[in-house]
Amino acid sequence: MSAACQLIVSFHDLHPGSRAQCARFLAMMRELGVARTTLLVVPRWHGAPPCDEDREFAAWLRDRAVEGHEICLHAYLHRAEAVNGNALQRAMGKHYTAGEGEFYQIDEPEAERRLREGLRIVRDGCDVPVWGFTAPAWLLSDGGRRALVKLGFHYTTLWGQVELLQGGSKPEDDPEAAARIQASPRPTVGRHPDRLQAGSCTGPTRTIPAPVLVWSVRAAWRRVCSRGWVRLWGAGKRRAPVLRVAVHPVDFSYPSIEASVRAAIVRSLRGRVAACYRDLLPDGTAPLGGGA
Ligand SMILES: [Zn+2]
Questions:
Q1: Count: domains in the chain
Q2: C-alpha–C-alpha distance, residues 81 and 56, integer Å
Q3: Residue 1 counted as domain residue
Q4: Residue 286 falls inside a structural domain
Q5: How far away, in angstroms, is 203 Cα from ligand 1 center?
Q6: How many A from CA of 98 to the centre of ligand 1?
């Protein structure tokens, strides 16, 4: 395995109410020697006041960014009002995302509005640099994706891959790249992640295969299955150049899951360096808005 293989560990659903679990996660990372992680921040978790209004939280987040952790925008409310469409789509919305697929069916204008407001709260209000966006449960509509490209987001993360949205330059600077991005095939989300491994970091789609280890803890049977699945899936993907581990606050409510997270990271670190999503971008890529 090449020394350049990367492990991206991310903490999802960070907001003032989950800061304690994130601190616990970061303590575990320090213990394991993981100095760089990506923290996915929700601007207004389930409609709560904007997270930057909690000045203590904003200062804490800024300190994490200064330490070298990356801040990634994650949804706006992290709640979907309703899921429309056929039975499969409704089932996806209800069961797969537990009603939190905010960007699953969003149209472009609404996505743009929420993304702008999210940036105002997290990037400007908390004063931290932002490069990318992750939709809840990695479910992103075409309109949502167009809004991300338009606003200059550099990447989005999906189930099984990371998508570079700007090809190293802003779309207004490179209309050809923007057209390529618009025309690139859409990944689909399903229960068979192997189907999603198509794509290349050098191809026109600008996608980087990046399998992800994640736990599902909503029911006892899910927690048991998750532990086994993560072990098997991680073993099957041990040669992937980029491997990801996605941790959620609720994982720390179950000692067996917390232990499984720790073990998976220890195993995954063998032969890999810990990285952030921004490390996948061309060298020197500035954050959105050019601020630091
Ligand atoms: Zn989330």
A1: 1
A2: 30
A3: no
A4: yes
A5: 29
A6: 11
Separation CA 143–CA 32 (nearest Å): 39
Q: Ligand 1 centroid to 137 CA: how many Å?
A: 6
CA dihedral 224, 229, 231, 236 (to 10 degrees): 170
Q: How far is the CA of 231 from the centre of ligand 1 (A)?
A: 22
pLDDT at 197 over 50: no
Q: How far is the CA of 91 from the centre of ligand 1 (A)?
A: 18
Domain with residue 132: its CATH number is 3.20.20.370
**191 part of a folded domain:** yes
Cα angle 132-137-139, degrees, rounded to a multiple of 5? 75
Q: What is the pLDDT of residues 252-282, one digit of tens each?
A: 999 999 999 999 999 999 989 999 999 999 9
Cα 232 to ligand 1 centroid, rounded to whole Å: 24
63-76 confidence digits (pLDDT tens): 999 999 999 999 99
94 pLDDT tier (thresholds 50, 70, 90) = low
Provide the whole-model pTM: 0.82
Between CA 155 and CA 54 the distance in angstroms is 27
Q: What are phi and psi of 245, to 5 degrees?
A: -125, 120
Instruction: Classify residue 274: in a domain, yes or no.
Output: yes
Q: Using the mean position of ligand 1's atoms as its centre, give its distance from the Cα of residue 212 in Å.
A: 14
Q: Supply the range of the domain harboring residue 61.
A: 6-290
CA distance 44 to 48: 5
| CA–CA distance, 200 with 83 (Å, rounded to integer) | 32
Taking CA atoms, 251 is separated from 12, 73, 187, 212, 290, in Å, by 11, 20, 27, 15, 35
As given in the structure block, the two tokens for residue 102 are 């905010």
